[in-house]
Task: structure prediction
Amino acid sequence: MRMVDIIIKKKEGKKLLKEEINFFVKGFTNGTIPDYQASSLAMAICFNGMDKDEISNLTEAMLYSGDTIDLSSINGIKVDKHSTGGVGDKTSLVLGPLVASCGVKLAKMSGRGLGHTGGTLDKLESIPGVSINIERTQFIKQVNEIGIALVGQTGSLVPCDKKLYALRDVTGTVDSIPLIASSIMSKKLASGSDTILLDVKFGSGAFMKNLDDARELAKTMVEIGDSLKRDTRAILTDMDQPLGMAIGNNLEVIEACETLKGKGPKDLIELCVNAGSIMLMQAKKVSSYQEGKELIQSKLSSGEALEKLCQLVKAQGGDDKYIKDTSLFEKSKYIINIYSNKEGYIKEINALEIGEAAMKLGAGRSTKEDIIDPTAGIVLSKKVGDFVSKEEKLCEIHTNKDDYKVYIDEVIESFKFSDTKVDINPIIHEIVE
Result:
């Protein structure tokens, strides 16, 4: 078998056999297939796509290109969730403790942020003392004891995906649904959970810009999970404006804590309650969507979910007094109120633009080597649909950068106005099963 023949076959739009996909994944992982041939195949896939069998076979081959995690020693059904990334997306910090407080086991490996999207690990590390590097036996012990662990991905999982993703990033082959779906699902499946809930975001602040593309990606990933015998479901969620009010690491932790106290923003609560109810059904903890919502809401109002976050923080070396009293978190040198120069109804808060502004203020990375300022970010005062008077507060920026004034116009310009009332999009548009 020759790699050049596989490239030509896909260039001509023909279906690749499982053996041919396995040959590529094995050779690319061990270095016998060079980068230029791998990038050529990726481009052919971008142009000609893959059918369900090819995508499933590619995912499975990447899944077994390295180690997989065996969670069979954790009692009960293990659930997991994955977000395709957005601005202000602190969902895992709320949703994880919520489902764990209902008696469901969540063993989750998360990622770091890059560009305008935030990462769960960076948010966790903004809590003093918290470690996201936990040895595997301790990871399993922690989930058995308190029902939840949020940790970094081990380097030996899915090595083919790491190599292929880095190559796609510099060869213009990122935007391919077969390659995106197989990348996400190979990592999720290697992490060992029994069920997966996918939060597929679309809009200005998401990778998928429209609902149709998000739906296609969600259906593709659900089909992959089902073909490999994992209960996989997806929700399609709005990312045309930031999720919640806070963008930035410890600012989002503070908002997550307030949400677990029942005081969070409406869109974040709605997302977590509905996603949580689906995860409880996947875990067979409840028999209906409504029963799941009622159980989740009861854990919010009782304070049990907040206590579960405290247990998670303590188990991973952190100081839970910051969770109980968020005023203890370190604050930025500059906290500046930003006021509107217009009057009207907010019709858009461009999530990409405000996410990039938060990154420049120190809340994110433009390269993997950048150091994040855990205190930096933006806290909104208004959301889409709100009426704003001229000179009324839109948001506040938090930063330690002395040149913060150069970013103020960028923040203001992310708000778009209308003279008439605007419709507010639901946070969850569809559920894909």
Notes: The two ends are 38 Å apart (CA to CA).
